[in-house]
Design brief:
The chain has a six-stranded mixed β-sheet with strand order 4-5-12-9-10-11, with helices on both faces. The protein has a three-stranded antiparallel β-sheet with strand order 2-1-3. The chain starts with a helix and ends in a 10-residue tail after the last helix. It has a domain of about 200 residues: Rossmann fold (3-Layer(aba) Sandwich). α11 links the parallel β9 and β10. The relative contact order is 0.11. Helix content is about 40%, strand content about 15%. α14 crosses α15. It is built from 16 helices and twelve strands. It is of the alpha/beta class and about 450 residues long. The structure holds pyridoxal-5'-phosphate (PLP) and zinc ion. Zinc ion binds next to loops.
């Protein structure tokens, strides 16, 4: 009998998650975690996940960092996945990205304690989206489903394609009109079914929501959204742990739909509640492209309401004109005394180049936006020279190189000593751009 009990409890092995239920912050409605809903039936707002924080505080202390996995499940007490089997099938190499002391970029900007949280190296898909999609896929498996859809500005699709493949489920990716071609191609190469729809992200998002409602197909970032969003908190947990359980003075985060920046705030609040770190003095600043800055402009105007915009920017992964979590971001930024900033497309590409030239990190336009805004915040005295500042670099530039304005490309030269000596001399004397003359 003992062995039967053991076997059946093993079949339902639970994680250490302390998640309790789904809640609506507006109506205070509560729903069981198992109920497959993603928005409040009364007010339509997105649902959040509630936790038993007393239990979480105890469980948090039971296992030292050295015994925790170095992946997105490291602090599973504060994540919403309860089925150990589902959890074990995804995200095993996701997140837990490096926090890099950016001394050379810092010297350039006059910041001696500048750090880069480098999600451009996340596995499997080289962006912050691995954190959130890991939750969606695990939830999908908890529900026993075998198909997943998503609507993507670029990186969600790649993450879904890769993680669905590893989990053995079918993936359908819907892209809007504008995105970097390499992202869609990577998706297809990873085995997802991909189609582009005529319209921008906000239009595609709306259509996918109807598709989900009509068919019952789960969408990683629509129907599974309450779970998806929780994954973004792991960036905050890691940053604070990597600084030795000290929360930074400032976090600079890019914002599109606003999930990352609002959940970094939630993660900081939770660490404080658990007694893991003092986090309430940390300011969150958000970065958006000038061509799509509905959240930043609301913050700068101190308005609570977001006015939707039609995006016009080369930073395609930040091109969300009607940000679903925008109101949460405004709340988080204003509560913490942070601010919003934006950068033009040329400033964004200059930001990419500056990060590359100083830190050897190649990022995409979202990362360039973060660096360009970081630069402005430093120049305007919002960041003191000794403050600890963490800039989150959310995506890898290898996927977007085709979009980077091309520098003059030198012609091929003869493979012969004298010509190559001339080329080397040209490198040494012509500054950073080799002149084409020697060819
Ligand atoms: C999705 C994305 C963001 C913005 O994320 P939100 O959570 O929607 O604000 C930032 N950078 C990159 C590279 C992304 O793919
Ligand atoms: Zn509600």
């Amino acid at each position: 009998m003992g062995s039967i009990a053991a076997a059946s409890s093993e079949g339902k092995a639970r994680t250490r998650s302390c998640a309790t239920e789904l809640i609506c912050h507006r109506c205070d409605n509560h729903y069981p975690l198992e109920q497959p809903i993603f928005s409040c039936p009364d007010c339509g707002k997105g649902l959040d996940i509630a936790y038993d924080y007393e239990l979480a505080a105890r469980r948090f202390r039971e296992i030292p960092g050295s015994e925790r996995p170095e992946n997105v499940w490291r602090f599973e007490e504060l994540l919403p996945i309860t089925d150990r089997h589902a959890q074990a099938r995804t995200g095993q190499f996701a997140a837990y990205t490096p926090l890099i002391h950016a001394d050379r970029l810092g010297a350039e900007l006059g910041l001696s304690n500048l750090y880069i949280k480098d999600d451009s190296t996340s596995r499997p898909s080289l962006s912050y989206k691995d954190r959130v999609v890991a939750m969606s896929i695990a939830r999908l498996l908890e529900l026993g489903k075998r198909e997943v859809g998503c609507v993507s500005t670029g990186n969600v699709g790649t993450a879904v394609a890769a993680m669905a493949a590893k989990a053995g489920v079918a993936a359908y990716v819907f892209y809007p009109d504008h995105l970097e071609d390499m992202k869609a191609r990577a998706c297809r190469a990873l085995g997802a079914k991909v189609c582009q729809v005529q319209g921008n992200y906000d239009q595609a998002n709306k259509a996918c929501r109807q598709l989900a409602e009509t068919t019952g197909l789960e969408f990683a970032n629509i129907t599974l959204r309450p779970f998806y969003a929780e994954g973004a908190k792991t960036a905050a947990f890691e940053i604070v742990e990597q600084l030795g359980w000290r929360s930074p003075d400032h976090i600079v985060s890019p914002a599109a739909g606003g999930t990352l920046s609002s959940r970094v705030h939630k993660g900081l609040v939770e660490l404080q509640m658990l007694g893991a770190a003092q986090t309430d003095a940390t300011k969150i600043h958000i970065a958006q492209p000038s061509g799509c800055n509905p959240i930043a402009s609301a913050i700068l105007a101190e308005e609570a309401e977001i006015r939707a915009v039609t995006p016009e920017t080369a930073a395609h992964s930040l091109a969300i004109g009607a940000p679903g979590d925008g109101y949460l971001v405004i709340d988080a930024v204003l509560k913490r005394g942070g601010t919003g900033g934006f950068a033009s497309d040329p400033e964004i590409f200059a930001g990419i180049d500056l990060l590359a030239a100083t830190e050897g990190i190649l990022t995409e336009p979202a990362g360039g936006t973060t660096i360009a805004v970081l630069e402005k915040l430093a120049a305007h005295g919002k960041l003191a020279p000794d403050d600890t500042v963490v800039a989150i670099i959310t995506g890898n530039g290898l996927k977007t190189l085709d979009e980077h304005p091309a520098k003059p490309w030198p012609a091929k030269i003869e493979c012969e000593l004298d010509t190559m000596l001339a080329a080397l001399e040209a490198f040494r004397h012509a500054g950073e751009t080799p002149s084409p003359e020697y060819a």
